[in-house]
Here is the input.
Amino acid sequence: MTTQLPKGFRLATINAGFRQTVRPDICLAVSDFPAVTAAVFTQAAFVAAPVIVAREQVRNGRPMRAVLINTGQANACTGEEGIANCRETLRWTANACGLQATEILPASTGVIGAQMKMDLWEKAIPKLAPKLGSASVKEFADAMRTTDAFPKFSGAAIATENGTITLAGMAKGAGMICPDMATMLCVVLCDALVPLDVWQRMFREAVNVTFNRVTVDGDTSTNDTVYGLANGASGVTPEGHDLSLLRAALEKILGELAYMLVRDGEGATKVLRIAVTGAADDADAEKVARTVGHSQLVKTAMYGKDANWGRIVAAVGRSGASFQAKDVRVSLCGVELFRDEQPVAIDFDALLEEPLQGRDIAIDISLGSGGGSYTLLASDLTHAYVDCNAAYRS
Here is the structure.
């Protein structure tokens, strides 16, 4: 798969040797022009140094020129030294690339608590700058990976009467994934000319219905960050219908990346699409979807290809949502298994034997006739998840 890089952006990657010597662990995206910038960060109480610095950088809507990402070191819970180190990496990058440090957004991922390896940073940055323009979208996404099994990237091209708008999104994340922004980093580059308030509102709304509706393990990280830079290099200012097309394309890209996060959940073999309808309101529907999606019993049943509807019903019952038990109906892979407070009289094991072999598993839950609804993507839970995370620091 090839994703086109939007006009006016250059990418570079390099291996600094933070944790391994094979795959690149620093990536840099630079815009040739100041870009209107949207950013969404983790809502956790403990936030990493790059989140603290980036929040200051984007304050007051200042345009940005670059995004600098490293893997192998989260630079989280590292105190004032960690913040100072983050700022120093931005100064080195700015000097090497002819930018201002205040125009560069940082992002980091890796083990919490370790200080940055500044000697390796100092050696790497001068070698990184000359490589600008040499990396592809796929290579940039590959450099963002930690425990990810594959690079995650997506793109879109929008044809308008005044020209073509191009978007490209790159993300990383496989574990520690749960909304309020999950251990995930994402950068979206766009060459449209969009007003700041329009771009920021569009971006927040797209994040809310994509990345904020996925879960792998219920854990939210210290570093979760999504950046969106629109530099206007295409010369196209989308309005009316074209603006709607841009909004849809952005949501599509983030939706595809969010799906990839769940599909790549550490050790995951299934993507559970939990759709709740008929709730009193959206908040109640969300309670049910999240309770089911976070249930270890549901997740392990899906890994075992077991049509155990009882685990789903039990999770619905303890969700805290308001509903009448007699109104609840549950279907798995399109087969209704539960209604009227009892199982449907069918041989559901035989009917679901083949569908449960697939990767995508639909869990549909109706709570009644209310107007509330919510859809959540969740992974299953496997032996490999335990193996991966038990050995994460070793």
Notes: The two ends are 34 Å apart (CA to CA).
